[in-house]
Every structure is written in structure tokens, then in C-alpha cells.
């Protein structure tokens, strides 16, 4: 193998220009010809797929311009053919085999390539929209540039974590990524690459289309991939430059990457688009590609025999199927209620922040659910403070692994969480500050699109950290997150609701769950834990009924429930009976029958209370309702001062209710 000048900060970077006999079995002329024929057949299948799809977009009303799945200009068919025919471990008969290799596209421009590969290897017919993960052989949605790559890093993390728990006899596979320069230039890719290098994820290999012609229009940089190569080398990756489209050279590069004890980036600098023949696929080539799809069948059957004899078979099958352990709910409730009775952990002296109770709940759940793993940012570090020392001290660079501190790399962290969930066998929890949600939104949206049950544990600072100023008071985020389909946003008011929301988040299996926890210490709103569980499961409930015919309904979430209860007490003294409704999850409440919602909200005037934007509250308040909260950004002052300034106090609520009811006398 010809070795070029080493790149900075790595001893595993070189240029591959010739075949090295030590890297792979010696190639014969027939091998070379067969590999080239497979690549040419793949290119023909791509073009055929593209021609089939053109009529669907031939309507004159269809917008002009390129589409995400336009046929690429070619050049990576040889690399893909070598990978799928000689290295990728899979069985088309069971595309969800737990110990299969993961193959991830990080660019939508490779979707035609993937569709062709799936068809040639004997997978079921590819359905429309397969790029969003509906097809069982497609590991993830493509998403914005870099999301696929960062998600693949999470999959490699999951493989390591599960291997540490169940052993290499059950978990021993690789993650492969096909990327282009646009993907690796994205900020999320650099964050994920840094984390992967830090963890030495040696079972992660990226094939990178570094040809100048593959650069996106307007892409900054040299268009040769050199910037990506340099950045990845600095992050601790092994980098290999492939200067030839020769199948033997690519085989040598991939084989060498499989022996390196760090993640590998293979930059494919050369590759001329293959000529396309209009003739049908030759039967011999069709059979050869079909054989690639069945090549892993024997390996899978041997693995199934190992699984049948494994002492952890039942547990492995449970976690890979995504099932929670039998009896976990009763154990969880007993542990929580015991903490409440003892006045420790989840509740102390009747006054505790929901952040404190939430992280105590996380510690309990980590003890009950061995598949639960946590990732947190610097701002979310306090969320994992209650975890046992063993869980907090162990990172994914070691085995077994339950926890990873990601620093300020929240963009990459959120994509990694998606990869952990998509891989299967783990239940990831992300800890971060609410104000950082915009950096995590692309990954959150993809999780919702794919229906992945990831949990975001967010510190809902809001006005509670008033001294930090308006920049750290995300008053608009609750409304924006509630607008995202298939995302359940929980904002619990006290320890009882935190317990219920944790349970609901774990059972919410068709999308992400966000639990917003406030660091401000508040008195418990109730002692009826059973009633709270039932009410939270329906998204909203009457927390405190009125003493007499209801004159108004106070509707609140999170810490503002305490404000509503205090206002209710004041109004009752004035002879104005009002009810208090807690609405911890709008999404669940909206799923209830209209009769239930009408019963809870009542016919009396409705007053909504939330220290956030009022956008969306009209849904529950009606045309004649009143919202008490924020209509702009926050300010810099103590929390108590800001709550008074914005009128989110019991006194201000009492005055607004009286004014709404037309009561002026004392």
C-alpha cells in the first residue's frame, strides 16, 4: 500500500492508491471484472428507478428544480458495491435482525442509490417515501445535512453499550455511513465527529464522496473534501484517502479501516460516473446481486442458535423489542411513594422544585430500567446529579456505559439520542436547558417524524432565573414545541405530577416526550398521587374544585399551578368560587373526548396562567377567555420581581378575575 504524507494529529491517515495484499485476499482478474460488473449493474438500476419515478412528477403544476431524490451524478457505485457485496453484514430475509450492520445515508442525494441496492439484494418492494424510515431495511430518515451522520454515531454508541451488557456473542456489528461534503461541513457533523473520536468508536466507518463534482452548489471550501479530512483527523479519526475507483483499492481501504481502533473516514477523491446501458439487467448480474442479499443468511442463523443458548436471551429479546420489564410500574410507584413518606429524595419538607423531583425520578428509573441511558449538556448537568456514582462516572468510551456528558455540543447530542433509539435495545434520555432547544430542534423533529420514543428532560428556567436576563428566558419555546406533531410536552406542577409525567413519557411510544422541570422550589399542589396519575394520563384535570357554582376556571401548567391555587384561596375568601385545572400535557388533553374536555374546562369564563407566550392558549380559553402570562421577552431581575412585573401572582390573578366578572366592590 502506498503511504502518503500523514495528516496532523493522527497516526492512522494515509492515501490508498494501490492494493495491499495484507489488507484483503489477492484479487484475480475475474474478481475485478465481477466487481466492476456489479457496480455497473447498480448504476443501471439507479437510472431505471429514476426513470420510473419521473412520471409521478411530470404534472405541469409540479415545481421545477432539483429534488432531494434526483438521480446523483454517479461515482460512488463502486464503493457501495464493494461494501454491500463483500463487507456489509445483513440478511434480506430479516432486515431487522438485531446484530445486522447498520447502513446509513447522510445525504438525500444517495436515496436512489439505496433504493437500487434494496431492490437488487432482494428486499421487499421499496415503498414511496422510503427515505423517512418506513421501509424496514432503512435505518433512519435522511433529514437536514449532517443529521444522518450524527445519528449513525449514536447507533455506534448503542452497539458498544449493548455489547458491554450482553457480550460480543450477541452484539458485534458495525455502522457504515455514506456521506457527501455538504453533510460533513454541517456543524452537527463536527460535534458528532468530536464525540465519536472521544469515545474511540472503532466500529464506525464513513465513506465520503470527496470528488470536486460532488460538492453542493455554493458550498464553501475547496470542493475536494480537504477541510472535512483535516477536521476529522483533528477529532481523533483515522482518515484514509482513496485516489482510485478501482474495486481492489476500495476493498483494501475498507479492510484496513476494520482493523483500526478508532472511527474511520474514507475520503473517495476519484470516481468517474459509470456508463449506463439501456439494456435490461443481465440474469447473471441479477443473481449475483441477489446472492449478496442472502450471503448473511447463514451468519444470522448461527447467531440465532447462539441467542437460543444465551443466559440473557429473554432480557435481550425484551430490550430489542422495546418492551418495558414486567412489573416496572408497581416497583416505580412503590419507590416513589416510599421516598415521599420518608421525606427524602423526591420530596423534602413539602417544598421542592420539579427539577429536583424529576432528577430523583431519573435516578430511580435508571435503577429499575437497565436499558435507560442518559446524555446531557453542560447546562443540563444538574439533571444527572442524583444518578448513582457508577452511572455518572462511566462514559461510552468504556463498557458498560450508561451516561455521557456532551458539554455544549447539544446539536450533535440530540442526533446521537436519535441513533441510540433507532438502533434498538436502549431507552435514551437527554438532559439540557430549555433555552437550548433550538439547537436540538432538527433532531427532535426527525424523532417525531419517525415516531421514536426519546425523552428530553429540560430545565424550564423561564423567569425562575431572572437575573440571567431575557436571553435565557425562552418564553416562546413551549408554544413552538406544542405546535410540532407527535411531540408530547409535559409541564408538571409538583412531585405527584412529575411522577405521573415520567410514567406517561415512558409509555408514549409514538414520538418524543419533553418534560419541562422548573428549578424554583414550590409547595406541593396536592397529596392525592393516585388522582394525579389518572388526571395527568388524560392531559388535564380539575385539581381543586370550586366551593359552590363555578364562577370562573383557572387553567395553569407547571409552577403557575401554585399561583392559581393561591388565587383560588383569595377568591374564595371574597365569595367567588372558582375551580383550578392543571393542564400538564396539551397533547394528551386534546386526544380526550369533547365531553370530557368540556366537563373539565367548564362553561364559566376561563383564565389561563403560564409564564410563557400565550400563543395557542385560545384553544382552551375560547373567545372570551383571559390569558395571564407573557406577550414579549423577559427582563433582568429576581424571579419574584419578574413574576410581579408581568402580573403572574395570586394578587394579580385575583384582580383580573374580578375585572373579567365585572366585580368592582370589595
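Sequence proposed for the structure above (666 residues):
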Amino acid at each position: 500500500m502506498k503511504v502518503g504524507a500523514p495528516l496532523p494529529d493522527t497516526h492512522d491517515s494515509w492515501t490508498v492508491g494501490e492494493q495491499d495484499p495484507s489488507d484483503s485476499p489477492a484479487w484475480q482478474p475475474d474478481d475485478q471484472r465481477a466487481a466492476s460488473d456489479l457496480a455497473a449493474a447498480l448504476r443501471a438500476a439507479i437510472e431505471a428507478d429514476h426513470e420510473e419515478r419521473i412520471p409521478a412528477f411530470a404534472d405541469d403544476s409540479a415545481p421545477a428544480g432539483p429534488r432531494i431524490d434526483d438521480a446523483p451524478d454517479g461515482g460512488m457505485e463502486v464503493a457501495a458495491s464493494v461494501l454491500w457485496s463483500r463487507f456489509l453484514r445483513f440478511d434480506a430475509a430479516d432486515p431487522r435482525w438485531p446484530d445486522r450492520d447498520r447502513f446509513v445515508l447522510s445525504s438525500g442525494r444517495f436515496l436512489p442509490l439505496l433504493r437500487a441496492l434494496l431492490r437488487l439484494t432482494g428486499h421487499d418492494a421499496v415503498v414511496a417515501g422510503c427515505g423517512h424510515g418506513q421501509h424496514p431495511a432503512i435505518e433512519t430518515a435522511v433529514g437536514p445535512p449532517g443529521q444522518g451522520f450524527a445519528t449513525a454515531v449514536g447507533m455506534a454508541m448503542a452497539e458498544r453499550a449493548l455489547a458491554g451488557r450482553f457480550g460480543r456473542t450477541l452484539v458485534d456489528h458495525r455502522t457504515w455511513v455514506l456521506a457527501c461534503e455538504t453533510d460533513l461541513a454541517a456543524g452537527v457533523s463536527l460535534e458528532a465527529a468530536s464525540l465519536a473520536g472521544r469515545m474511540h468508536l472503532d466500529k464506525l466507518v464513513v465513506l465520503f464522496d470527496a470528488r470536486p463534482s460532488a460538492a453542493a452548489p455554493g458550498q464553501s471550501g475547496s470542493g475536494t473534501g480537504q477541510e472535512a479530512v483535516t477536521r476529522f483527523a483533528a477529532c481523533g479519526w483515522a482518515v484514509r484517502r482513496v485516489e482510485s475507483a478501482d474495486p481492489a483499492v476500495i476493498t483494501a481501504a475498507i479492510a484496513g479501516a476494520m482493523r483500526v481502533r478508532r472511527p474511520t473516514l474514507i475520503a473517495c477523491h476519484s470516481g468517474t460516473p459509470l456508463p449506463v446501458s439501456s439494456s435490461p439487467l443481465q440474469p447473471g448480474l441479477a443473481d449475483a446481486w441477489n446472492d449478496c442479499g442472502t450471503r448473511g443468511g447463514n451468519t444470522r442463523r448461527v447467531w440465532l442458535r447462539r441467542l437460543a443458548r444465551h443466559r440473557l436471551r429473554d432480557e435481550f429479546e425484551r430490550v430489542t423489542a422495546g418492551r418495558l420489564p414486567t412489573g416496572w410500574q408497581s416497583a416505580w410507584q412503590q419507590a416513589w411513594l416510599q421516598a415521599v413518606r420518608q421525606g427524602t429524595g423526591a420530596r423534602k419538607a413539602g417544598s421542592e422544585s420539579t427539577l429536583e423531583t424529576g432528577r430523583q425520578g431519573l435516578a430511580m428509573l435508571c435503577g429499575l430500567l437497565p436499558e435507560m441511558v442518559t446524555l446531557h449538556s453542560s447546562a443540563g448537568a444538574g439533571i444527572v446529579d442524583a444518578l448513582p456514582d457508577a452511572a455518572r462516572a462511566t462514559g461510552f468510551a468504556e463498557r458498560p456505559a450508561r451516561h455521557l456528558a456532551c458539554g455544549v455540543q447539544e446539536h450533535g447530542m440530540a442526533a446521537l439520542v436519535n441513533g441510540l433509539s433507532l438502533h434498538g435495545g436502549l431507552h435514551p434520555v437527554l438532559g439540557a436547558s430549555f433555552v437550548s432547544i433550538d439547537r436540538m430542534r432538527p433532531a427532535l423533529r426527525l424523532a417525531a417524524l419517525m415516531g421514536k420514543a426519546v425523552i428530553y428532560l429540560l430545565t424550564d428556567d423561564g423567569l425562575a432565573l431572572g437575573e440571567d436576563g431575557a436571553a435565557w428566558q425562552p418564553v416562546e419555546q413551549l408554544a413552538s414545541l406544542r405546535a410540532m406533531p407527535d411531540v408530547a410536552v409535559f409541564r408538571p406542577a409538583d412531585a405527584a405530577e412529575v411522577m405521573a409525567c415520567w410514567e406517561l413519557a415512558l409509555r408514549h411510544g409514538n414520538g418524543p416526550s419533553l418534560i419541562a422541570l422548573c428549578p424554583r422550589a414550590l409547595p406541593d399542589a396536592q397529596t392525592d398521587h393516585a388522582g394525579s396519575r389518572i388526571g395527568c394520563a388524560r392531559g388535564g384535570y380539575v385539581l381543586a374544585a370550586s366551593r359552590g357554582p363555578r364562577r370562573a376556571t383557572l387553567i395553569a401548567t407547571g409552577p403557575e399551578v401554585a399561583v392559581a391555587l393561591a388565587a383560588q384561596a383569595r377568591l374564595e375568601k371574597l365569595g367567588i368560587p372558582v375551580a383550578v385545572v392543571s393542564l400538564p400535557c396539551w397533547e394528551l388533553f386534546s386526544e380526550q373526548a369533547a365531553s370530557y374536555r368540556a366537563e373539565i374546562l367548564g362553561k364559566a369564563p376561563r383564565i389561563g396562567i403560564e409564564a410563557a407566550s400565550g400563543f395557542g392558549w385560545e384553544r382552551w380559553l375560547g373567545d372570551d377567555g383571559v390569558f395571564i402570562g407573557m406577550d414579549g421577552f423577559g427582563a433582568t431581575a429576581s424571579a419574584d420581581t419578574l413574576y410581579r412585573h408581568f402580573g403572574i401572582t395570586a394578587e394579580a390573578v385575583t384582580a383580573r378575575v374580578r375585572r373579567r366578572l365585572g366585580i368592582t366592590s370589595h
